Amino acid sequence: MRSDRLSNIELLRCVLMLMVVVIHFLGHNLLSAAEPIDTSNPHFYTANMLLCFCECAVDCFVLISGWFLIKFTVSKLIMFLLPIAFYQFVLSIIYHIADDSPLSINAFEYWFVRPYVALMIVSPLLNLGLKNIEKKNLQYCWHC
Questions:
Q1: In Å, how far are 39, 40, 48 from 36, measured between CA atoms?
Q2: Which of 80, 78, 85, 64 is CA-nearest to residue 11?
Q3: Disulfide check for 19: which of 54, 67, 134, 137 has CB 3.0–4.6 Å away?
Q4: Whether the model pTM is above 0.70
């Protein structure tokens, strides 16, 4: 296991972040579930093809995390949740001022937080299993 950063993985992470931004842009603008589907829109099919291409970004983030064996600590959990709670608080204040919405701070409200926290908590057990399993047995798991 290496502690230094790999530039190719960092570049991949940057591309994946851009893909996640594209997913959110398309989901909130061109392919909004609140709007009826308009297949006559010339951008509809392009947006769907781009969305299909970008959907793998979140899975790739999880794979990268697994490759480098996540090490769970309470401080890492806090450092993961703190920015989410901060931005949610700031946005909650803005929404409260704009249309009198109730203030809300719940980092677990977002879909990606729950699975990632679960992965962080389970990761020591997964890492222990990966370190102690024989190579032959690990290869057998991949062929199942």
A1: 9, 12, 15
A2: 64
A3: 54
A4: no
